[in-house]
């Protein structure tokens, strides 16, 4: 696709919610979209004209802990190398921001592991890291802290 621009900027909350929806990741309201977009420490957008066609976001403390939260390419453009373009921008950000011994993680969607391995990410468990874990439900105000 011609006229693509890579911009280190955050998407609008509406753009973010729309791209997630196109990927089949469900609906989120505007307040949720705004909060998550604003929480990113680094965002990069791929635009065709003024239309958002891809984005990547990193959350964390910006020094020692980084989590790649999103690498999303519009379904019409998948397979065209645009995810690689977004990842190269993220790696450039890490080169500028991450201190030695920083922890940089991604939890890819099932089947996307090889994509991230192409950028040097290693599967867990390994000699340093455990298997990785996730909390499969959302804590609510009524559930409280179980510890």
Shape: globular
Overall pLDDT confidence: 91
Helix/strand order: EHHEEEHEH
**What is the share of helical residues?**
25-40%
CATH fold name = Aminopeptidase
What CATH first level would be assigned? Alpha Beta
Outline the biggest β-sheet. 5 strands, mixed
Report the β-strand fraction as a percent range: 15-25%
Under the CATH scheme, which architecture would be assigned?
Answer: 3-Layer(aba) Sandwich
- Strands in their spatial order, largest beta sheet: 1-2-3-4-5
CATH superfamily (homologous) name: Gcn5-related N-acetyltransferase (GNAT)
Number of strands: 5
The figure for the number of domains is 1
Specify Rg, calculated over alpha carbons. 16 Å
Distance between the termini: 52 Å
pLDDT below 50 for ≥5 consecutive residues: which ranges?
none
State the secondary-structure class.
alpha+beta
Quickly count the helices.
Answer: 4
In summary, what is this structure?
This protein has a single domain (4-117), classed as Gcn5-related N-acetyltransferase (GNAT) (Aminopeptidase, 3-Layer(aba) Sandwich). Helices cover 28% and strands 23% of the residues.
Task: Note down, in words, how this protein is organized.
The protein has about 150 residues and is α+β, with helices and mostly antiparallel strands. The protein has one domain: Aminopeptidase (3-Layer(aba) Sandwich). It has helices spanning about 15-20, 30-40, 80-95, 115; strands at about 5, 40-50, 50-60, 65-75, 105. The protein has a five-stranded mixed sheet with strand order 1-2-3-4-5. Helix 1 packs across helix 2 (about 30-40). The termini are far apart. The model has no long low-confidence stretch (mean pLDDT about 90).
């Amino acid at each position: 696709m011609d006229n693509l621009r890579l911009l280190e900027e955050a998407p609008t909350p509406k753009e973010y919610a729309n791209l997630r929806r196109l990927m089949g990741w469900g609906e989120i309201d505007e307040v949720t979209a705004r909060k998550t977009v604003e929480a990113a420490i680094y965002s990069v957008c791929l635009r065709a004209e003024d239309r958002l066609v891809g984005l990547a976001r990193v959350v964390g403390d910006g020094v020692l802990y980084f989590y790649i939260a999103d690498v999303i390419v519009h379904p019409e453009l998948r397979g065209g190398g645009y995810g690689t373009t977004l990842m190269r921008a993220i790696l450039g950000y890490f080169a500028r921001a991450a201190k030695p011994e920083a922890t940089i993680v991604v939890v890819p969607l099932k089947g996307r592991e090889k994509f991230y391995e192409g950028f040097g990410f290693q599967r867990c468990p390994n000699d340093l890291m455990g298997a990785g874990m996730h909390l499969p439900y959302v804590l609510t105000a009524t559930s409280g802290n179980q510890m």
